[in-house]
Design goal:
InterPro entries: Helicase_ATP-bd, P-loop_NTPase. GO terms for molecular function: ATP binding; hydrolase activity; RNA binding; RNA helicase activity. Keywords: ATP-binding, Helicase, Hydrolase, Nucleotide-binding. The chain is of the alpha/beta class and about 260 residues long. It has 2 domains: about 120 residues, no CATH class; about 140 residues, Rossmann fold. Helices cover about 50% and strands about 5% of the residues. The chain has 9 helices and 4 strands. A 4-stranded mixed sheet has the order 1-4-2-3.
Length: about 260
């Protein structure tokens, strides 16, 4: 009984926290309803935010002392961060409040704790992707690390990303940069986004795939450059090329000044 009495204040705090979470997520869902025009995209986002809400509510506010069911809180899983980043891109209204909600529920627990910090860049290139392609992208492991990857790129001169084959490194990281504004003079990060491939076939096929995912004509925003062949244009932002092409460019421009 004494244990139950001691737990009452915590239960009250937990109820208040749950009410606050519900209210905040309801506000986000209303924003999606009014800001997203595409019906299929809207339905997909609403479904994802509902799943995220359920996931957050299942996580305890803090450890409950002197109880058998003691649970340590950790930072939200990659999928939660991925969903939040996607919603932020699809809506015009910032939802930094979700960052506070998730971090309030994540107490520091050694290396397991990774506070959520939503992207605050005011310049964002909005991409009108096919809903099926977008759903497929969100299943790739690298998309769950988008926020952390972008933070590391902005904070460091060199970033090494390790991941299994098929995790989305080659196709998705260039898109992260593109949506952040790299390659756009208005963003403060002008210059091309360069991606190298060991073989010409891989350079061309990967460029085609990225152009398809960005829903842009091949040879417009996304182009390739291999020996004796290219489809570069004045609008090219993401350039896929072989290692040999890049080495040739370094011979005449060691600073690679045309890249962002």
């Amino acid at each position: 009984d004494d244990g139950d009495d001691a737990a009452q204040p915590l239960k009250k705090r937990l109820r208040q926290w749950e009410e606050n979470v519900t209210q905040q997520f309801s506000s986000v869902m209303e924003t999606i309803e009014t800001s997203v025009q595409d019906a299929s995209v809207k339905e997909s986002l609403l479904k994802m935010i509902q799943e995220t809400k359920n996931n957050v509510l299942q996580r305890p506010l803090e450890d409950v002392p002197n109880t058998k069911n003691r649970t340590s809180t950790k930072a939200p899983p990659p999928k939660t961060v991925r969903v939040i980043s996607e919603i932020q891109r699809q809506t015009s209204t910032p939802i930094e409040s979700l960052s506070n909600i998730l971090n309030e529920n994540a107490t520091k627990n050694g290396e397991d704790h990774k506070p959520v910090q939503l992207q605050t860049n005011k310049f964002v290139v909005r991409v009108n992707r096919d809903p099926k392609i977008q759903e497929s992208r969100l299943q790739l492991p690298v998309c769950g690390e988008e926020q952390e990857i972008m933070e590391k790129i902005l904070e460091n001169d060199v970033v090494i990303i390790c991941g299994e084959t098929g995790s989305g490194k080659t196709t998705q990281v260039p898109q992260f940069l593109y949506e952040y504004g790299f390659g756009n003079e208005q963003s403060g990060y002008p210059g091309l986004i360069g991606v190298t491939q060991p073989r010409r076939v891989a350079a061309i096929s990967t460029a085609k795939r990225v152009a398809e995912e960005l829903n842009t004509p091949f040879g417009n925003k996304v182009s390739y450059h291999v020996r004796y062949d290219n489809n570069l244009s004045e609008d090219t932002t993401i350039k896929f090329m072989t290692d040999g092409v890049l080495l040739k460019e370094i011979q005449s421009d060691i600073l690679l000044s045309q890249y962002s």
